[in-house]
Amino acid sequence: MATLGGCVARGEDHERVFDRLGRSDWRALESEKEAAFGGFRSGDLYPDALPTLARLRQGGYRLAVIANQPAARHGQLAALGVNADVMAMSGRLGVAKPDPAFFARALELMASPDPADVAYVGDRVDNDVRPAAAAGMRAVRIRRGPWGLLQDDTDGVAALVVGSLDELAARMPEAFTP
Fold first, then answer.
1. Residue 105 and residue 71 in one domain
2. What proportions of the chain, in percent to the nearest 5, are helix, strand and coil?
3. Is 45 helix (H, G, I), strand (E, B) or coil?
4. Taking the CB of residue 117, how many other CB atoms lie within 10 A of it?
């Protein structure tokens, strides 16, 4: 974690951590892991992920899962019970965060005429919060996982900051109307 934190603090791509640890072969290892174990498994989801999606859906929110992931993740997430109106992975979109085109594509897929009607939830300030806000969306920062804890959001770009998905579901009505 210290090496990752150092890379983040210097504004380097997180993939540099593998070079610093002498594992420049990490992409091959990732492919081997994928072949051996498949993609996402139920234990890869936060325990509050599915209940939060259900709670938000019951609250009238349209849901999207749009992420920097291989195209195959779409089916894997659906098989795990992730129920979203829109699900798109960067591997299928052909563009990845933080590219502004990624966020423009997300808005197209959500068919939202006004970006301010979209709450974009992410843990990374550099990859999620700032680019979503720059696209006109209301950025929600979740401070969980390595990125949520390593990066500071001292510029106050996030419209809402939460510590868990449970908290997100509880606070969405006060911050955003569906």
1. yes
2. 50, 10, 40
3. coil
4. 16
pLDDT for the residue 85: 96
Looking at the structure, do residues 70 and 123 belong to the same domain, yes or no? yes
* Residue 131, amino acid: P
Domain hosting 88: range is 39-175
Contacts of 134 (CB under 8 A, 6+ apart): 100, 103
Q: Are 9 and 151 in contact (CB under 8 A)?
A: no
Going from the first residue of the chain to its last (178 residues), give the mean pLDDT of each consecutive group of 10, the final group possibly shorter.
Answer: 55 60 65 72 91 96 94 92 94 95 95 92 93 96 81 82 96 84
- Which pair of tokens denotes residue 137? 């969306």
- Predicted local distance difference test score (pLDDT) of residue 9: 56
